[in-house]
Amino acid sequence: MQILRIVYFIFIWALLPISGFAADGEAIMVHGGSNPAAMPCIACHGADGKGMPSSGFPRLSGLPAPYIEKQLYDFRSGARENPVMGPIAKALSDEEIKELAIAYSKRPKVNVNNSTKSNPVQGSGAWIATRGEWNKNIPECTLCHGPDGVGVGDSFPPLAGQSPLYLENQLNAWREQKLTTPKKTSNIPATRHNDPNHLMQHIAASLTEAQIKAVSEYFGSLGDSTEPFDESQHRLR
């Protein structure tokens, strides 16, 4: 009987460290995952989760948890190719991915800068964003991403609050590009294939490089206002 008690207490004691190391989203942000290859998120996405605009690292703060979770799984599977995020996503456990997504979703949402934009110039970034280019079958970005690009549901993320460089990189990632050298022209395949019904692949392929840059700069100009936060901006989420 005494031996059985000892075995029982050893068994209970052995389980304690496992529960103590349960995934913690905030801790993963700062210290990384249980696998050393899962580096701390703040190294690229900032201590506040608002990204590093000059380097093209995106804002994660306030994004929907299901969206963040899906992107990490897509990085893991290769549906969204990235030399930095691919190895990190593969090093995170399923539980760590879930808790990390929840933690970032609880951070502040973007406080949209409602600058005057009622009469955009035709063909400008603001025009494409709010009215589209229907002669090329390109709908306005706000049709899916909501008023001011604040995001809709879990599939259409906020564009406002992301840096122009990040947005430009993503639009280019969705389309096959041509690289012309003095000797030949090569096709660079798209590196992102995880959009609903391939909507973004069509749109990105139909935009010129100048239009991509213009619409990216427009949405990049809408992020965090110094005015009091208005939760109703995010009513569609």
Any overview of this molecule?
By secondary structure, the protein is mainly alpha-helical. A two-stranded antiparallel sheet has the order 1-2. Helix 9 packs antiparallel against helix 11. The longest helix has 19 residues. The radius of gyration is 22 Å and the shape is globular. The termini are far apart. The relative contact order is 0.14.
Could you provide a short overview of the structure?
The protein has helices at 2-20, 25-31, 42-45, 65-77, 85-91, 94-105, 125-131, 142-145, 164-173, 199-206, 209-220, and strands spanning 177-180, 185-188.
Keywords for this structure?
single chain; 237 residues; mainly alpha; two-stranded antiparallel sheet; 11 helices; 3% strand; globular
Individual helix count? 11
Tell me the structural class.
Answer: mainly alpha
Radius of gyration, Cα only, in angstroms?
A: 22 Å
pLDDT averaged residue by residue: 88
Terminus-to-terminus distance: 58 Å
Number of strands: 2
Give the strand order of the largest sheet, numbering strands 1, 2, ... along the chain: 1-2
Could you name the ranges where pLDDT drops below 50 across 5 or more consecutive residues? 2-20
Strand content: under 5%
* String of helices and strands: HHHHHHHHHEEHH
Q: Level of helix content?
A: 40-55%
What's the overall geometry?
globular
